[in-house]
Amino acid sequence: MSSLQLDEARQMVERLKLFAQPQRLVILDILLRHGPLAVGELETRTGIGQPTLSQQLGTLRRAEIVVPRRESRTIFYSIASEDDMLRVRALIALLRGDEASLPVLEAVTARYGSRPRDVSRHEAEGGAQFASIRREETSRV
Asked: What is the pTM of this model?
């Protein structure tokens, strides 16, 4: 993974702002647990009133985190993609900070942790920069 650039950091902050709203987190958590739901069902399960729910779903829809699907007069919402599901799960797990969240975080690491990144000379030799061990010293012990 390359170093974080200022423009990328700004984009990440804007993305995080989408999750920095309790009602949106509740909506996403319910969709994760139950899959696609009609707006009325979301209202019942979240306890969020219809006007506020519509506003928050609109924000999540414009950010392409949730997608609507119309069946006759009913609109169902679901999380947009498997990647978005994994990201939302990981974020909620990370913020909860309990041990039950470790499998989710490991899944994210497994999925995204193998991307190419800049490797320092010390890491290329087999150790982290802050904990490198010279081979000459270990052979004397």
From this structure: 0.71
Domain that holds residue 4: 1-141
Backbone angles phi, psi at 67, to 5 degrees: -130, 140
On the question of pLDDT at 126 being above 70, the answer is no
Residue 60, Cβ neighbours under 10 Å: how many?
22
Q: Which helix (H) or strand (E) holds 139?
A: helix 135-140
Q: CA 140 to CA 66: how far, in whole Å? A: 59
**How many domains are there within the chain?**
1
The tokens for 52 are 């506020």
Q: Rounded distance, CA 123 to CA 3, Å?
A: 15
CATH number of the domain to which 63 belongs = 1.10.10.10
> Residue 1 has what pLDDT?
61
Phi/psi for 30 (5° steps) reads -65, -45
d(CA 35, CA 31): 5
